[in-house]
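agent> Task received from the user: take the single chain below, predict its 3D structure, and emit structure tokens. No templates, no multimer pairing.
agent> Plan: (1) validate residues, (2) run structure prediction, (3) serialize to tokens, (4) report one or two observations.
agent> Step 1 OK, no nonstandard residues flagged.
tool_call: predict_structure(input=
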Amino acid sequence: MKKNLIFAGMLFVTGISQLSAQEKEEKLIPEVTIAAKAKQQLHKTGKNVQLLTSKDLEKFKGQNAAEILNQVSGYQITGNFNNGPEPKSLKIRGGKLANVLILVDGIPLKDVTGNDYTATDLRLFASENIESIEILNGASSVLYGSNATVSVINIKTKKSSQQALEGRIGARIGSFGTFGQNLSAQGKINQWNYQFSGSNEKSDGISAALGENFDKDGFEKQNANATVGYSTQNFNVNVNAGYQHHYYDFDNGAFEDGKYKGNDTQKFSGLNAQYSYEKGNITFNSRISANERIVRNLNNNTYQDQYSYQGQNIFAELYNQTQFSEHINLVAGIQYETQNLGSKSLPWGGTSMQNVLTLGETEISNFDVFANANLAYQIFHLDLGARLNNHSKYDNHFVYSVNPFILTDLDDKFLKIGYSYATAFIAPTLYQSYGSLPYVLPNFDLKPETNASHELDFSFGKKDRTFVVNASVFSRKEKDVFVYNIVDFNTYAGKFLNVESNKVKGVELGVQYHFNEKVNVGGNFSFAEKDNPATRLRSPKQRANAFLEILPIKNNRINISYQYTSKRNDAYYDSSNFSTKNVELEAFHLFNLNINQKITKSLDTYLNVGNVLNTSYTDVIGFTTKPRNITLGVEYKF
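)
tool_result: status=success, residues=638
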């Protein structure tokens, strides 16, 4: 372990980074919205924010959203190196998937059918439709409510252009019998704008479970998104809708082949509007989403539905942002949300599924009030925020945040040092509250899972990101953690209870440096340690990412990336003796290669090679990891 730590430290000191700088001709100061629900220059945010711009994402062509995020500082996405359809579980700063809130264009997109999480499924995203990704680590429930306890991810989709029509057509082929196509078109006609995108992907895959002569587990995915907007000098409104479908094979479990199929569908639509006035703006965001997950099993040579979950989520918020003076900015608003869950299962010996829960009999709702102020005087800054959460099951919960920091402008450079203390919460899911009879009993007395976080942030570099060094030190105390316990040993039925607590501490380091027009280098290193051994499953203490980007000739880009994951604990169910076996997984190192070549002004090609050295390793015990794999693609812009 010491050798691995030394190696990871050397990567940081020598400047190997995940995020690249902009091209020389685009040395603009980047802006983000995730840290304050309002536009801020990246270096002026109270907490360190990670940003992947459209230029950064060019290095990841041929990779999906989970593979891209897995190279961000502090991120470990379990299952990312397994077969494509396998679940992707985010473990960020020692947290779990329930600690993460995913936004699409600033609005939460949730899957409320999850057992202990509501984050939307990363497998459903089409990376071709992503314009940029903003990442805010640390407790952020003041601005975003439940689940924003460890990290908030804002995925911004591609926007309409200023032309009447422009777009792109792409196609790719790859290992494991994989091929895909994507199409997008956008434009502006007078005061109207529009955007449409669609994609399709199919793959023969590899066996999900590890074993000899196991069947391949393939998948197919379809995505479609559309936005229509209207804007004037002071007002804009957009209506959007999306459809995501994932149909896939999967196995029985670790080391066990199986004949299962999953059919996941997500539909959503929304409206957002903004009115601008002299010193600020008023914003309204809304989204309605519906999910369905169906699992089928082979029975007498015919696939039969075994169980299904249906979920519905309605979200709306209204907030006002006012710049009272150069020293005071205030964001204040209200938020309303409802969630509903339905489920069906196939009775023993039955021929069709029957209702266990219906959408009409399950509901959780909340109404929140929040405010966040940004105060500045010379080099001194202070962010203060609070939220009152009124929940239909546990009544009221209050969270707050305090974030003083010093920001010094040094011509084209900056220096920022800050401290933050924030409280955050996770509301119980519908599954945890209503259960799923006969084995999961309801519990309407659950309190929210809470945490309190301390964080020190340091950042120094150039405002255009051609050189930046970041460092964060954090500690987090979690209370009333949700745990499933058996409460009836005659029927082995159980329920979720607030029983556990945990402490987490860690460090994140990152650096990026743009030597010149030809060479970019950088890297990040993260360390997270959890006190409670029961919560360490598949969570590495150390993670490191590195990249070297070279532009050897005109219109050519070569990116070599490196990933390191330390040892971690895992467990699997051994059906041969009906017991759970605990194991320790070895650390592993991976190298990847991405080459982009512009053929003409409108035609691009790319080659992505994952696991270049064909390293043998284990991501999740009992499941196959991907060997060397190749994706070759072409994209035409019109």
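agent> Step 4: summary for the user.
The two ends are 51 Å apart (CA to CA).
agent> Done.
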